[in-house]
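Repro:
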Amino acid sequence: MQFRVSPKTLSECSAEEWQARVDLAAAHRLAFIQGFSEGIFNHLTFVVPGKSDRYYQIPFGTHWSEVTASCFMEVGIDDGEFHTHMPHASALTRLEDPRIKEIGQTEVGLSGAIAYDDEYTGPALDPAEGARLAKVIGDKTVLFMANHGISTVGATVAEAYDMLYYVERAAQVQIYAMWTGQRLKQLPAPVVEKTRRDYKDEHLYKGPTPAQRHFDALKRMLDRKEPDYAT
């Protein structure tokens, strides 16, 4: 399956489809601003609402700083891979041990969500490689791909972007700590388990999830500085 549908305007989309396009456009603009992009490469994609056989992707050659809601193509679901080459997380994937260490609160909150693929097989041009990676990530939401980059997945653009953001921040802090040459201070197992339980406490926040609140705040920044992303 390798079909592409031309970009659409607001009048040609359902409200749900257009909101998905707006959110995905925002994610591209934010990824560029926050240093997560790599030229015209990498992929931020989202399954078209109500459809299981296609996803949104920008036309190749579009710079992430110029992405708008109307520019997305609809692409066959098996015709691509979804990942980024963020500098700090990607640096960790180049190490013999790329694991995020449980040396702080953020890292503990992320560690249980990360899967690691320790085998780089070259450019993922074969659909079988996608199936292999899907098996590796399993029920996790982050995949560290050896010698390559990372993938994040989520039910919403907000969930996937929030995870992308905090994985990169955790990787950055870990690399900075490693630069000191001192031994990393691993948190004790009981503290790790308690912290994980606390993160899962559904009573901490009411209303929108922290991920949605974070993404909404980032979009408000774009609304002030680059409102054309939503066109």
